[in-house]
Write a structure and sequence with these properties.
This protein has 439 residues and is mostly helical. It has 20 helices and three strands. The protein has a three-stranded mixed β-sheet. The chain is globular and about 80 Å long. The model has no long low-confidence stretch (mean pLDDT 89).
Length: 439
């Protein structure tokens, strides 16, 4: 019965199923509000872009964002990547008293395309396999019922917009068509604006794909030169706007320091690598020593934190290696250990664990078998999945990790889970059929 229902589904059905489920969650939240994991920076900056000509965000005890830490107090023009704020800025062309409603509907309509694009990825990966349509559709349904995806449209976080761009990028690379260079450049530019660290991951993967001859030298050269030019002009934009030729954001040094200072290792051990509360737990220890930072500009802070982080890394190589280990745990672990964090509750922790644990466990089992069986010699699609996931993961080890940093590549984990689950199902079915015939 369930097979017949799934087989009748079409890509457009996934869009509306996703839209409907998100709408249900929205209605539930309207009548029974629950705590959301929001980052107010993005929407606040988007609002300033449209309504206040891009003025600075003031971080202070009575500013736009409230803080009492001298490490954070100040005016910020270029603290976070601008991509998601540009995406949100469109809602402020609408005059309304309920921007939460407008933002939610807007994100629902856009994020519902994610399962559709994921379906295309699955179709490409499972093509030529037995029951490829069924496997693809089961994969998409598992994706749609991700608890984090179902509440994503309610949140002011860049996670799902980033996921959409990452899935499209993977699809274009997987298809490797001659006409998709322009699309790749557009998507790569979007990823760079949303998450520069994710862009680094994608370019490392693209270089690896070139070594394996998955893409041509011509395509790699064109993309690299074009993206270098785009990033150069982005740096010029920062220079003329902020007086600094910066290819990233002024929070680079701050995030690097949070992941590499004398207090980080103890924090990561106590929180099993989960960096969600790293600011809350670490900043108070430095408020007296670094109180002079409240008078620094955002780029003076960036230089200060960068220098301190690099000094720590160079002087403590063994601690740095241990930090990398715990950051890796934090990236891959389905557990969330966040003491007194406002977004956490036992029910959220349990739901997240139930959904994510099978995906992560199966990924590592699949990877071990992939290496032992030397499948990398002949199974290029699977090699593409593992290499993409690994290259996405590696740059985050420089800073600190959160479980949601893994979200943009969880679609790959779902593909592997469905593939292995279907193989296991077939073996059980054949075993039962053999046992029945033997009797």
């Amino acid at each position: 019965m369930w097979k017949k229902v799934i087989k009748r589904l079409r890509p457009i059905h996934f869009y509306f199923i996703s839209l409907l489920l998100q709408l249900v969650i929205f209605v539930i939240h309207r009548f029974y509000p629950f705590q959301l994991n929001d980052d107010p920076w993005f929407e606040l900056f988007a609002k300033k872009l449209i309504l206040q000509d891009g003025g600075p965000i003031i971080w202070s005890p009575d500013g736009d964002l409230i803080t009492h830490s001298p490490l954070q107090i100040g005016k910020y023009y270029n603290w976070r990547p601008i991509g998601y704020s540009l995406f949100l800025s469109l809602i402020f062309f609408i005059k309304t008293n309920d921007y939460f409603l407008v933002r939610t509907i807007y994100q629902m309509l856009v994020y519902s395309f994610i399962p559709v694009m994921f379906y295309r990825v699955c179709k490409n990966y499972f093509s030529g396999n037995e029951n490829s349509e069924l496997k693809s559709k089961i994969s998409v349904m598992i994706f749609i019922f991700n608890p984090l995806f179902l509440v994503g449209h309610l949140q002011s976080l860049d996670t799902w917009l980033k996921t959409l761009f990452v899935i499209i990028a993977f699809l274009l690379i997987f298809e490797n068509g001659n006409r998709n260079i322009v699309y790749l450049i557009i998507v790569f530019t979007g990823i760079f604006l949303i998450a520069p660290i994710g862009f680094i991951s994608i370019m490392l993967f693209l270089f690896f794909a070139k070594i394996l001859k998955m893409i041509s030298l011509k395509k790699f050269f064109i993309i690299t030169i074009t993206m270098t030019t785009i990033i150069f002009f982005y740096g010029l934009r920062n220079y003329y706007t902020f007086g600094r030729f910066d290819l990233s954001n002024s929070s680079f040094g701050y995030n690097l320091w949070l992941g590499n200072n004398e207090r980080t290792l103890d924090f990561l051990k106590r929180h099993f690598g989960d960096g969600a509360t790293i600011e809350d737990k670490i900043l108070p220890h430095f408020k007296d020593r670094f109180k002079f930072l409240s008078n620094y500009s955002e780029y003076e802070k960036n230089d200060f934190f960068t220098k301190n982080a690099l000094d720590f890394i160079l002087k403590n190589p063994l601690v740095t290696i241990e930090l990398i280990f715990w950051k890796a745990i934090g990236f891959w672990s389905p557990l969330r250990i966040r003491e007194s964090h406002y977004t956490e509750s036992p029910i959220k922790t349990i739901i997240a664990f139930i959904y994510q644990a099978p995906l992560v466990l199966n990924f590592f089992i699949s990877f071990v078998l992939f290496v032992i069986r030397k499948e990398w010699r002949y199974n290029k699609p699977k090699l593409l999945i593992f290499s993409f996931a690994i290259f996405w993961f590696l740059p985050y080890l420089i800073f600190f990790t959160l479980s949601r940093y893994r979200t943009p590549i969880e679609f790959l984990l779902i593909i592997l889970l469905v593939e292995n689950a279907y193989k296991f199902y077939e073996k059980v079915k054949h075993f039962l059929a053999f046992s029945k015939n033997s009797v």
